[in-house]
Amino acid sequence: MLTQIKGLHHVTSMASDANSNNQFFTKVLGLRRIKTTVNFDAPDVYHLYYGDEVGTPGSVMTYFPFTNMAKGKAGTGEVGTTVFSVPDGSLTFWQKRFSDMNVKTGNITEQFGEKRLAFSGPDGDGFALMEVANDGRKQWLSDGLNDQVAIHGFHSTTMRLQDDGAMRELLTFMNYEILDEKQGVLRLGITDGNEANIIDLETLPTTQYAQQGAGSVHHIAFAVENRTAQLEVRKALLDTGYQVTPVIDRDYFWAIYFRTPGGVLFEIATNEPGFERDEDKAHLGEALKLPSQHEHLREALEQHLQPLKD
Fold it and tell me: What pTM does this model have?
């Protein structure tokens, strides 16, 4: 068992417009934009990071906003819903806030004994808020959001699969244990995790595979403390038969990737060095930060990239 894995590190999705994406996460959800950089493989596209004050692993939602990208088509083989943790009793506040801000949402429901409010992002992204008692993680408090309602970080993700057998086996190998199963959804969790430590598996055997586009999750990343732990995980995955990339330097963490049997792309990311390595904590996300290999493109990129409205 890979006891080095402590829960989610980040979730990365795709969007069709950088400004509407930025406005949604900072003004509607009240997260902090903690890094403004570019896609390593497509430097003419932003890579935007949102989270708590410092981008604590387990709080970070990231986006590749490809201008005018077609919307994704929901299906199996993907992360269908990303769920954020909010304080007990706060969902009625969020329901009204979403209504006032024209965010598509539904009624407050219950799942595994927890109150839940589903809502959609600007590109039809699947999200939910879950009331969690005694979540001790420090919140980012933006305008209109106090510590009674603000988001703590991730609660979980829900993967939609045609068959959950192989994914169940993989996740139990990755330090998750089965917690419960209700109405076709299997819940797994890490008991000693970082509080972003729940994965739900929804089995939909007759549903077609998803088609990725704007609003789709590109990959999910799981947290390990450091590079030593990451190398241990990489070796164990390779020994088990997974095709795992070499370690890649992503400036704010080191990453390895592998495709799961269900189709979802997994990343294992280190908690080090963090988002303060090239910006002071008070000014995270304010300046355009470029990977060193793209620094020579700065003038052209600053002219090309859509200015972000704060």
Answer: 0.97
